[in-house]
Design a protein that fits this description.
This protein has three helices and two strands, in the order H-H-H-E-E. It is mostly helical. The chain has a domain of 34 residues. It has a two-stranded antiparallel sheet. The two termini are 45 Å apart.
């Protein structure tokens, strides 16, 4: 099977040398040949399964309970520094910006 490693690398924004493209092309081709070989296995009488450990998720019932009052939650907000103002604004926690606008 012929794989266009250069195209795949470009889509993934991976700069590959010609040597790497040849190497990875051979490896990917080998992997795909193996996957195709698995398609030849007779699985007609095999029951589908998504996992084999028998473990199940443990969940609890979703029960609505009252939340803490907003004032109670915000009372321990840290101070912002020199002015000792609380790190809150309009009833929410105030945090440093992590995104920049361009």
């Amino acid at each position: 099977m012929k794989i266009d490693v250069g195209h795949a690398a470009k889509l993934a924004n991976l700069p590959l040398s010609e040597e790497e493209k040849r190497k990875f092309g051979k490896q990917l081709s080998s992997i795909l040949d193996y996957v195709n070989k698995l398609g030849e296995v007779d699985t007609k009488d095999v029951e589908p399964t998504s996992q084999v450990t028998g473990l199940e998720n443990v969940t609890r019932e979703d029960v609505v309970t009252p939340s803490l009052p907003q004032e109670e939650v915000l009372k321990n907000a840290p101070s912002t520094g020199s002015g000792q103002a609380k790190s809150t604004h309009n009833g929410f926690f105030k945090v440093p910006a992590i995104l920049e606008s361009h």
